[in-house]
Amino acid sequence: MQERKTLGSTRQRLLVGSLVLLSLGLAPQALAARAPKGEATEPARSAPVVRNTVDELRQLVDSKQLTELRTTYNGSYGASLLFNTSTLQYYAALFHDKDFWRVIKTDSVDNAEKVYRTFVQQTEELAQVYIDTTRLEAGKRYTENLVAFNEQRLRSLQQEAELQRQQSLQVSSSIQQAKQQAVTLSTDLRSTHSQLDALNQRIQALQAQQGNPALSLPTPESSAPAIAPAPTGESSNP
């Protein structure tokens, strides 16, 4: 009899416990069913997913939660040391063209400075190729421009030399023409002198003739007509 009572009381306790658990499981659903229809439950806001320290740093930079302590540029590469004043954590970042490559987070000042110095050294090594390439490209462009300038200068000098040659030929031709003209003029001058001498001689002859008094009047013999002799008184009879 005693065992039956014990088993009965045990079954009752188990049944009561099951009912309590069942009521607890249904309580949230019952509360949700009793909630007013006009009030919509707000969906739970999901926190941004942070996959790595690079994404974490980007989110902190976008939200302006970091203070920039140091930044070094070498070419298009750079290293930065950032500090979160809310969490007292440091972020050492290595980036290229504003794109983060590596990010190390630490709460130690010494470790942050050490990582930052390491990243700065890496930027120097990475940028050396970029710097050398930039210098070589600049030197190539300068040399090409110098070659183009010298080629243009050579063409200008050649054109100037050709122009001078043509001018020299023109001057030489003009000199030859002038010489020929001088010879012609000299010949003409001698001929003119000869004519002048002949004219002078004739003039002098005429002047001498006009200045001779013997030639001014004609002689009587040559000028008086012949007169027949007058007849005498005696006649000759045959």
List keywords for this structure.
rod-shaped, 4-stranded antiparallel beta sheet, Viral Envelope Glycoprotein, domain 2, single chain, alpha+beta, 238 residues, 4 helices
Global morphology: rod-shaped
Low-confidence stretches: 1-7, 18-47
Radius of gyration, whole Å: 69 Å
- What characterizes the major β-sheet? 4 strands, antiparallel
Q: How helix-rich are the residues, as a percent range?
A: 55-70%
Remind me, CATH topology of the domain at 53-121? Viral Envelope Glycoprotein, domain 2
- The strand line-up of the biggest sheet is 1-2-3-4
Just give the CATH class of the domain at 53-121: Alpha Beta
Estimate the mean pLDDT confidence.
78
What's the total count of β strands?
Answer: 4
Distance between the termini: 258 Å
Judged by helices, strands and strand pairing, the structural class is alpha+beta
- Strand proportion: 5-15%
Quickly count the helices.
4
In CATH, the architecture of the domain at 53-121 is: 2-Layer Sandwich
Taken in chain order, the helices and strands follow as: HHEEEEHH
